[in-house]
Task: inverse folding
């Protein structure tokens, strides 16, 4: 009895040799090219979906007679090219979203989506490159290898741009907050200076405005006390302002 029954995830149209089946487990596993005695099994993944950790595996069987068969029973590697088309389409869509994003939340979602894309295209490139080493006369497979290299670079650049944009926005918001804090500090400093200017006057007014009997000579010195308080307050403001300027 064939061992194929022990691997239900394999397409029903496949009839793999025993040596090839010995390299498989009960799960599809990562993207790779499994090498048997006379046959190959190329395991690749569908384009990853954001927030979905599971990967949908696609299989391509290289028979002993040199013919590639896809999971639907079709001959050749056309479906592998269609898979690369889907990767290219998703990467292009994400690149446009990076340019159009207006909020940090949108950029964060792009970072989350682009990271699996980058990893998946990198692993896909390794799997196809391995397959080319085993089927080195297949020009179609070589063209897909060269294309996935371009897609891998594009996916990596997408992830880098999304992360860089997020970091840029973070730095920009930090600068805006710093500028706002400096403005508030200047306003508070001016208010403190204004309060310090009138502090002596308020203190003297409170002292001489108490409900007590004051000497007669004090009552005639109202304007002297008033201007004296202003001069004292102005002197304090000048001293504080000069020391603050020296520190800066």
Result:
């Amino acid at each position: 009895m064939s061992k194929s029954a022990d691997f239900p995830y394999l397409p029903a149209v496949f009839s793999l040799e025993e040596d090839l089946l010995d390299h498989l487990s009960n799960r599809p596993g990562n993207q790779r090219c499994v090498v048997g005695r006379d046959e190959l099994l190329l395991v690749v993944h569908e384009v990853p979906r954001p927030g979905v950790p599971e990967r949908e595996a696609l299989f391509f069987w290289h028979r002993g007679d040199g013919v590639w068969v896809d999971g639907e029973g079709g001959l050749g590697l056309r479906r592998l090219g269609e898979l690369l088309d889907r990767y290219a389409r998703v990467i292009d869509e994400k690149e446009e979203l990076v340019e159009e994003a207006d909020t940090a939340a949108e950029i964060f979602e792009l970072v989350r989506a682009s990271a699996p894309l980058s990893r998946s295209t990198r692993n896909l490139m390794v799997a196809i490159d391995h397959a080319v080493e085993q089927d080195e006369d297949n020009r179609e497979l070589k063209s897909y290898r060269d294309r996935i290299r371009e897609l891998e670079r594009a996916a990596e650049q997408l992830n880098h741009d999304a992360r860089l944009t997020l970091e840029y926005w973070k730095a920009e918001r930090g600068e805006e907050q710093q500028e706002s804090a400096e403005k508030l500090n200047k306003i508070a400093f001016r208010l403190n200076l204004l309060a310090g200017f009138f502090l002596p006057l308020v203190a003297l007014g409170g002292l001489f405005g108490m409900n007590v009997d004051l000497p007669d000579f004090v009552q005639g010195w109202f304007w002297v006390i008033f201007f004296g308080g202003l001069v004292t307050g102005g002197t304090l403001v000048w001293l504080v302002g000069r020391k603050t300027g020296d520190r800066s």
